[in-house]
Amino acid sequence: MRTRFDQRRPDGVAPSQGAFLCAHCNSTIPGEAPGTRHRNHCPHCLWSLHVDLRTGDRRSGCQGRMEPIGVSLRYDGDWALLHRCQSCGLIRMNRIAGDDNPLALFSLAVRPLGRPPFPMDLLPRMVSGGQDLSDGEEVQS
């Protein structure tokens, strides 16, 4: 398992300054990212590593893999990724980068629509305020 930021690629070539190998998909990731000062996740699979105590300090002892679990809209209108550390459970918000995979971001954004917190067959009743839309009769609970 690759968990260091300065390891060589499988072909033996050393990555550029600040570049790292993604511990999840094994892609070589450049150290610079458009739209952010601190590259903290893979732009392909969006996974990260728990390496920071504070943004950019690279001082965390955990080093666990951080799964992208969702997206959030920040106060300034920018999107942010939510990551959960698979080792310690920490959840952290990280801003997206300009080269992040748009399909992967969109997939995270719509994930809750595929897993609603209620049975989908109740949706017509919820929308109609207790009326069954098929015949207009009141539904008794």
UniProtKB/TrEMBL annotation:
Q: Which residues form the RNHCP domain?
A: 19-105
Q: Which Pfam families match?
A: RNHCP
Q: Which InterPro entries match?
A: RNHCP
Q: Origin, by domain of life?
A: Bacteria
Can you name this protein?
Answer: RNHCP domain-containing protein
Biological source species: Desulfonatronum thiosulfatophilum
